[in-house]
Amino acid sequence: MADGSITWYGFNTDITDRKRVEDALRASEELLNATQHLTKVGGWEWNVETQTMYWTEETYLIHDFVPSEMVPGSAEHIGRSLECYAPEDRPLIRAAFQRCVEEGQAYDFDFPFTTGKGRRLWIQTTAQPVLESGRVIRVIGNIMDITERKRAEQELLLKNLIFEASITANSIADIKGILTHANSSFIRMWGYENKEEVIGKPISDFLKFEHETRKIITALNENNEWTGEYTDLRRDGTTFNAYTQATIVMDESGNTIGYQSTVLDITERKQAEERIHASLREKELLLLEVHHRTKNNMQVISGLLDLQARSSGNPELIERLNESQSRIRSMALIHEKLYGSKDFARVDLVGYVRSLSQELFQSCKINPGEIDLIVQTDGDVYVDINKAIPCGLILN
Hints:
Blueprint: H1 16-39, E1 41-47, E2 52-55, H2 57-63, H3 76-82, H4 90-103, E3 107-114, E4 120-132, E5 135-145, H5 147-165, E6 169-174, E7 179-182, H6 184-189, H7 210-223, E8 225-233, E9 239-250, E10 256-265, H8 267-311, H9 315-339, E11 347-348, H10 349-363, E12 382-383, H11 385-395
Antiparallel strand pairs: 1-2, 1-5, 3-4, 4-5, 6-7, 6-10, 8-9, 9-10, 11-12
Helix pairs in contact: 8-9, 9-10, 9-11
């Protein structure tokens, strides 16, 4: 002013709407960051015109990079991100990004990934071009930590490989008992050609004998599992022996959601066992016959010696013949014990000593009351026939 005074002019502008928009934008960004952190999904954007890159907070976290250590908006983000991929994968990522920028081709890849702190991850990286007037002006994309998903997929793949490659017939049925999974061994064991012939059928269709089915179902209802052997029929009507482990599958709340079973064909083993048992029975009968005939032959010899002694007038010869007869009876008694035993490899020495002592006592024609026979033995003693015969001869 002419008099030297100063006049101030001011303008007030209502920025309530702008502040509301800014607050809403800030809240939206916070929600986006929180959502991306929960889902382990990071976002990024490449501005083709300005050659600048923008990363969301989760993208930095996945890379284990610190935002303050990188030039905001610079292409440095691209270079440092590429370093996290394996050397053999980098050309593929670089070429795909270039095609997206220049030709507008989207991409979606899964790759192993090493973060700035050395963590090993699996990530899914995607890119989508944004066009304007037919020209790519921006590229937006996501990077997702899929390590847990990959681990679960690999575990599932391994379980499927084990399930499929097993020599046992593996199957899974739903809550209604309808077969949902069956491996190749199951298909072959029941005589089918492919899985389409069995999937969708009730598991009861493969349990042909009603009493066997009742046995398994009863055990499952009582114990939630059953392990045992049973007999079943193949598709062509031939029977086979099976060793089975069946269990009820439950969810985390303890509710039944299905059934799982493994079946091993033990037909050949059962047949081999039957052959072995038959052979053992045959050998047992043969041993019984051997011991029986040996005992009888010794009794015949003993009888001949007795006849010889009676017809002889020589006292010394009679005494020698009686001694021989007594020894033969002691050996015959061993075979008699074995003939009545369940174990042909062992003789009950205690019982043998008692029997032989009593027989020898009687053969000496001792008058009752003049001499008492006392036999003292300790516990159960078993010996083989090679030891029992000398013991009998010594006792004799």
